[in-house]
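Q: What residues go here?
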C-alpha cells in the first residue's frame, strides 16, 4: 500500500473530487480525515472511504482560524500527525465582474485561497519538525487562463497558484513537497450548481481527477511534478489549459 502509515487531511471532502481522493487514499493505506461544512456528506464520504481503510469526518469552516486549529488537533488526536494535506475546498459564483457582489467575491477568496492558507499554516510547523510532508493544492485551469463571467473565481484560482509557488520554494529545504493540480471541466455538484449552460456529458469525472492527485502524491525519487494541468479530451489541445 503506497500510503500506509500516512495521515491525510482533505478539505472539501464531502463530494466530488475530494470524496474520490479520500476514497483512493484510504484504499492505499492512509488514515483519512475529510473536512467540510456539511456533516451528512462528510459522513457519507467517510463511510465509503472506510470500506477500504480508515476514514473519519470532521465538520469545519476552513475560513475560521480557530476552527482550523481545532480541526488539526482533532485529526492528530484521532490518527496522528498530518503528513498529507489536500487543499481541495472551493466555491464558485459566476457573473460579469460589474454584477458580481462583494459578498460573493469575498466568499470565493475566503474559501478558495484563505482556507488553503489557514490549513497549510496549521500543518506546516509539524511537517517542518518531522522534515517530511506533502501538500497538494487543487486549483483549476481558471488559474492559468481567463473565462468570461468568472472574474472572482479566476482571481481566486490565480491566487492559489501563486501561493503554491511560494510554498514550494519555502518548504523545499524542509523536505516538504508542494504540488498543484489544475483540472478543466469536471462533472461535480459544484459545477452543476454553478452552470446551467453546459452539457456535462464530455466533462471529466471526479475519479479521473482523483487518480491524477494520487499520481502526484505518490511520486518518489528524483522526478517531481510541480503543476499538473488536466483537460477534457474534447477540449483544444496545447492551449496551456483548455477547460
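A:
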Amino acid at each position: 500500500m503506497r500510503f500506509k502509515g500516512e495521515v491525510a487531511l482533505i478539505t472539501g471532502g464531502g463530494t466530488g473530487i475530494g470524496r474520490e481522493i479520500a476514497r483512493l487514499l484510504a484504499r492505499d493505506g492512509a488514515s483519512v480525515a475529510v473536512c467540510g461544512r456539511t456533516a451528512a456528506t462528510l459522513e457519507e464520504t467517510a463511510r465509503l472511504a472506510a470500506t477500504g481503510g480508515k476514514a473519519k469526518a470532521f465538520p469545519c469552516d476552513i475560513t475560521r482560524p480557530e476552527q482550523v486549529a481545532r480541526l488539526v488537533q482533532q485529526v492528530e488526536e484521532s490518527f496522528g500527525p498530518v503528513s498529507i494535506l489536500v487543499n481541495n475546498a472551493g466555491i464558485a459564483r459566476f457573473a460579469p465582474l460589474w454584477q458580481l457582489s462583494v459578498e460573493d467575491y469575498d466568499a470565493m477568496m475566503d474559501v478558495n485561497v484563505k482556507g488553503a492558507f489557514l490549513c497549510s499554516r496549521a500543518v506546516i510547523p509539524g511537517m517542518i519538525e518531522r522534515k517530511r510532508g506533502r501538500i497538494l493544492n487543487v486549483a483549476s485551469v481558471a488559474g492559468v487562463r481567463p473565462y468570461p463571467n468568472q472574474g472572482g473565481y479566476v482571481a481566486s484560482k490565480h491566487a492559489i497558484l501563486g501561493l503554491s509557488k511560494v510554498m514550494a520554494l519555502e518548504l523545499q529545504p524542509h523536505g516538504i513537497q508542494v504540488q498543484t493540480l489544475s483540472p478543466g471541466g469536471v462533472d461535480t455538484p459544484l459545477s452543476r450548481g454553478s452552470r446551467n449552460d453546459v452539457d456535462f456529458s464530455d466533462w471529466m469525472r471526479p475519479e479521473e481527477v482523483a487518480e491524477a492527485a494520487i499520481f502526484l502524491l505518490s511520486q518518489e525519487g528524483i522526478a517531481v511534478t510541480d503543476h499538473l494541468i488536466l483537460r477534457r479530451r474534447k477540449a483544444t489541445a496545447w492551449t496551456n489549459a483548455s477547460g
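A: Context that may help when evaluating the design: The longest helix spans residues 102-130. Strands lie at 7-11, 31-36, 54-59, 84-87, 133-138, 176-183, 227-230.
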